Amino acid sequence: MGLPRLSLKRCFIYIFCATGMILVVMNVRQKELWHALRPDPGPAQSIRAVPDVGKPSNLTGTVNPVDHIAEIMDPSKRPWYMKGGTRRPLPGVRSKRTGRRIARLWPDEDSNDDRVTNQLMFVPLDYNRTSVEHPPKRIMIPHGMGEAKTGSDLFHQLGCPVNTCVITRDNPEGADLIIFKDYVTHVGRRAPNQAWMLYFLECPYHTQAVRNALVNWTATYRRDSDIVAPYERWQYYDARVTQIPQTFNYAANKTKKVAWFVSNCHPRNQRMQYAKELAKHIQVDIYGACGSLRCSRSQAQTCFEMLDADYKFYLAFENSNCRDYITEKFFVNGLGHNVLPIVMGAHPTDYAKSAPYRSYIHVDEFESPRELADYLHRLDHDDELYNSYFKWKGTGEFINTYFWCRVCAMLHDPRPPKHYKDVNEWWRGDDVCTQNSWREHDTNEITFKNS
């Protein structure tokens, strides 16, 4: 029986199919080789977090590739409010479609940000574009705020991009804005279109209620204030680079575990009970009126040098658990030194928004003080893991937020007038503060919503 006769067409089909099979095999082998050459990232680090509602983003992640490290370290490319920065704002622009300014300056325009840098870089559209002199905005301060001297010198000394403002201590009728620090006083008849601003630095537990006052603006540490006045404000050199490699071993030669400097033994939260329970499972040295150890405030520098040299962890516990309430206990006592802060106070999501990435441990990441202690013991025995909490250093700086510059700039924004329907409800309403932990608060919220 003879062999079947192959046509030219059939030969072409056979060759085409064979070539296709060869290409498929080569592609599969190439992928296998590529995956074999890629480094194994290892198992993901597991840390217990708070319930899904408002879960913080401080727990996992990798070091960002720093392809442009020289560029982000160049001060000349930074805005004017950063150290060495020279970049000044240009007059704002408007949307061609709506005719409104593009910059987001107020809480209702961007509820996810504190808008501090937007306000620092805001210059009204027609500001300094014509030879017509802008009439200065008058800011009246009836009490307090002694650093604000009368006149316009303050705004020029600070180098404010918008500086046509004057501070006064009298003549409230002629003021564009009156700032009430801590409480509202009677200032006489209110002028039309005059704005009143309430200025609070303490948390709701330590401030007075506001009665019979129509408040237009707020200035507090809260991120939803009109003029946010934080205790400190972290700013990255490049938002894409939140961690960089470190050459210093922050665990080296440290022989002690946890330290705490504290004098208020009767706070509005459970920090004392938590610290005592934590001390059952790990060394906690408490200095001051609430502990057995002493380190005088008159020798604060010596105390913090001891902290840097001897301790791995510091309890940066606030006296109240209120939203966004993060003070110098964390920013100065904690992040200002080579120690890992353990925080209590604001909600975990608030710390995640305000602090450098992976620079702290929040107590509500753990179910109990004992579970936290177990993790601290793990860090104590793992220098690489401990040092991973310091990779934020060198990626940014704490900036001067130039409060007075921002107040002056916002006065020049032609925004329609608004007011708080009930400023007390906004300041001290439900879910603003809790005397329990935020973990317990969030769990109760979930239970209530599902019931």
Task: Describe the SSE topology.
Layout: H1 8-37, H2 69-72, H3 116-120, E1 137-140, H4 153-157, E2 165-168, E3 177-181, E4 195-199, E5 217-219, E6 234-236, E7 256-261, H5 271-278, E8 284-287, H6 300-310, E9 311-317, E10 321-322, H7 328-331, E11 340-344, H8 348-354, E12 361-362, H9 369-380, H10 383-387, E13 396-398, H11 403-411, H12 423-428, E14 433-434, H13 438-450
Parallel strand pairs: 1-2, 1-3, 3-4, 4-5, 7-8, 7-9, 9-11, 11-12
Antiparallel strand pairs: 6-13, 10-14
Helix pairs in contact: 5-9
Main location: Golgi
EC number: 2.4.1.-
Domain Fucosyltransferase C-terminal: 252-426
Structure, briefly:
Helix content is 26%, strand content 12%. The chain is α/β, with parallel strands linked by helices and 451 residues long. Among the domains are: 144 residues, Rossmann fold; 157 residues, Glycosyl transferase family 10, C-terminal domain (Rossmann fold).
Describe the structure.
This protein is α/β, with parallel strands linked by helices and 451 residues long. Among the domains are: 116-230 and 401-429, Rossmann fold, CATH 3.40.50; 240-396, Rossmann fold (3-Layer(aba) Sandwich), CATH 3.40.50. The chain is 26% helix and 12% strand. It is globular and about 65 Å long. It starts with 7 loop residues before the first helix and ends with a helix.
